[in-house]
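Morning, I've got a small favour to ask if you have a moment. You're getting the sequence in one-letter code plus the fold written as tokens. Thanks so much in advance, here it is:

===
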Amino acid sequence: MNFKNVLIISIAAIVSFVILFFTPNTKALEPQNVYRVYLAGKSIGLVEDATALDQYIDNEQQMLREQYQVDKVYAPEDLKIVKDVTYNENISTTQEIYEKIKDIEPFTIKGYEVTISGIDTTNEQGEVVEGVDQTIYVLDEQVFEDAMDTTIRAFVGSDRYDKYINNQQAEIASGSTGSLIENIYLENKVTIKEKNIPSDEKIYENSADLSKYLLYGTLEEQQKYTVQKGDTISDVSFNNKLSNEEFLIANPEFTDANSLLYEGQSVNISIIKPQFRLIEVERQVALQDIPYETETRYDNSQYTTYEETIQEGVNGSQLVTSVLEKVNGQVENATIDTSATQVVSEPTKRIIVKGTKQRYSGGGTDSSLSGNSKVEGYWLWPTRTPYYISSPYAYRWGTLHDGMDIAGAGYGSPIYASNNGIVVASTYKYDNGQYIVINHNNGYYTMYAHLAERYVSVGQEVSIGDTIGTMGQTGAATGVHLHFSLWRGYPYSRGSSSMNPMSLF
């Protein structure tokens, strides 16, 4: 055998040896069918059995099953298990994958996700604030439906709501007073979807807790007040920054603001913060005064200090039909159906006689607008009739509404000066809109806001009953109305204070 053949044989032997001892096992090179586990889009490992992981999670989360009394606990919502093939990657045990999941995201249970859409609002600066959707989780769809029913009844009244949904409301008889609900609906869009819900979220298991949250925006303990001797609902409400309506919503056992309280009684005084906008459209017929007018006659034989009433004024009365739009129990808009207004009795005008004769005093004539003049006993209602007080001087959602909103007279209807005075403001502001302030030269000021037009300017003297502008919806106004307020001192200035304008009439 020559050298060449020997070399070939030797090389072949070496190659055979290398192949025999260094080539991986053919079994290891075979592909293995496995399952890749993804959490939040990121791979956290491989498992051999997809169903084993699901079962392992349910077994390990027995405490969660017992807590919510459910039959099964599931993996996180964004956990995905996908078939895969591997040659040499490490395969995790079911326990190892479980421990990774537990440290990253919560496990889930079957339930319902309720989404309440947000409603855009306008802040005090006139800027649009985008509404924020909120999500509520419940185990049973019926829990949400029962909670909504309870909350709606708090705003509307249980008896009235039953009559509305059962079509049992009595029609308002001609010539009579009364009210009926024309429509009730949620302004927010509500969607309910069955899904696996995260166990670390607040999950409402009963309607009582959820209705409390829907009404107050919290599950914290509600504030209580112990009734003192002589307390009325109006007193307790105002002193705790509630409107009468809010007090009645928070304490549904009382039927109206005239209900009696007894000493030692415990009542709820928490500020309500509804989590939705419930719209109630109500038709109301109410008896309303027709304010009398004052006729002034002049006597040139009497001095200017002379004034005599020769006929007392008497208010008339009328049946006024209003269509009210309430949001969570508070009137936000009111429209008067003038065609349905019925006059019950005509008013009798007040007649006064004033002297015009000047008394020489060496210092000029007297002025009815002097700083020493007193508030006259008669103040004129600032709008035409009929009207509707859509929001009185009271607290709303914890903030004092420092005047009263008078609606129903209609866009562009006249606004009158309530008394003699001098115009000290006639301008625009983002919250008041077009507004006027009159100084009555006796420490009192009246303000007229949300006007469509202003007819007077700063420095101008006005007399009681002068048309100073028209009703509108400028500034932060939810509907057409006049915001009429009474102040001691210039409105919102240091040391000034608002008063209930109804004290004038």
